[in-house]
UniProtKB/TrEMBL annotation:
Name this polypeptide is given: RNA polymerase subunit sigma-24
Subunit structure: Interacts transiently with the RNA polymerase catalytic core formed by RpoA, RpoB, RpoC and RpoZ (2 alpha, 1 beta, 1 beta' and 1 omega subunit) to form the RNA polymerase holoenzyme that can initiate transcription.
Boundaries of every RNA polymerase sigma-70 region domain copy: 13-75
Keyword ATP-binding: no
Family: Belongs to the sigma-70 factor family. ECF subfamily.
Length: 319
């Protein structure tokens, strides 16, 4: 490859990098693994002796095959994972396509990514390429190494599984953001009554710590139980100076929690429907938000909160 050809190939790859990352992330639910898959795709593209007719088709096929292999080994690790497993929080999807913005936003939600975990790697690949990124079946068949007829069957099965458990969200994004803003305002103010008013009767609060951080909500179900949990958590979080910054997480209303030095403590994601919060997901595993910024020591913060609580007036029956 001449220097001019190499420069052209590199430029073409960089233009397609957002798409490749977005494909890989939807397969893997991991920012780091998706970035590694994209880098490996570049190495294979760079080493290819010939330039493909369609760089997009070629690179998408390569990143798909790499992601399928990574996903198969990742599933073995996830079987040994401590507690609920959530994807790594993604604050911004680098790939933008106005014509498919709805599909892109829905497919990156925590709920949708967890639903994709139920599919086989091949079903997941076909679904993501077809339903999310609108690839044709000839391209999909080449990417996964199956016939077009087999890919069509895989697509039907995958779509059926996804439709059976497809998450529903509030249609109006502005209404969702407004309600989430009220929730986190009430959280910062320690107003548990206001928080209760925003929760659905069957609200579910669930957390992913991977056994590596204090977990106050593995699975908590129901308005009364979640309210009691928040009534305990809110003042403890305030005691150690945690800053709550609302932010879209995986295309949904959420927030990033940081300690007083700006280090990431956790990310929260809200599922909202019918004007109420249906699910609160908290990502506490310190390995998962490392791409967002430096990560706090949640165990140290928990110990500090307990010490401060013990010395507060009125604690342990003192005046």
């Amino acid at each position: 490859m001449t220097p001019r050809e190499a420069a052209g190939a590199a430029r073409q790859f960089e233009e397609l990098r957002p798409l490749l990352f977005s494909i890989a992330y939807r397969f893997l639910g991991s920012v780091g693994e998706a970035e590694d898959a994209v880098q490996e795709t570049w190495l294979r593209y760079e080493a290819s002796p010939t330039r493909p007719v369609s760089a997009k088709a070629f690179l998408s096929a390569v990143v798909t095959r790499i992601s399928i292999d990574v996903l198969r080994s990742a599933r073995v690790r996830r079987e040994e994972y401590v507690g609920p497993w959530f994807p790594e929080p993604l604050l911004t999807d680098p790939y933008q396509d106005p014509e498919r913005s709805a599909e892109l936003a829905d497919s990156i939600s925590m709920a949708a990514l967890l639903l994709l975990e139920r599919l086989s790697p091949l079903e997941r690949a076909v679904f993501v390429l077809r339903e999310v990124f609108a690839f044709g079946f000839p391209e999909i068949a080449a990417a996964v190494g199956r016939s077009e007829a087999a890919c069509r069957q895989l697509a039907v099965r995958a779509r059926r599984h996804m439709d059976e458990g497809r998450p529903r969200f509030e249609a109006d994004r502005r209404e969702r953001e407004e309600l989430a803003g009220r929730f986190f305002d009430a959280f910062r103010e320690g107003d548990v009554d206001a928080l209760r008013e925003l929760l659905a009767a069957d609200v579910h609060m669930v957390g992913d710590s991977g056994g590596k951080a204090p977990l106050f909500a593995a699975h908590t179900l129901g308005l009364a139980n979640v309210t009691r949990l928040l009534a305990v958590a809110v003042p403890q979080i305030a005691l150690v100076g945690v800053v709550v910054t609302p932010h879209e997480v995986n295309g949904q209303p959420g927030a990033v929690f940081r300690d007083r030095d700006g280090r990431v403590v956790s990310a929260w994601v809200l599922d909202i429907l019918d004007g109420r919060i249906q699910t609160i997901r908290t990502v506490l595993n310190p390995d998962k938000p490392a791409h967002v910024g430096p990560v706090a020591d949640a165990w140290a913060m928990s110990r500090e909160a307990n010490r401060r609580h013990a010395t507060e007036p009125g604690a342990n029956g003192s005046a």
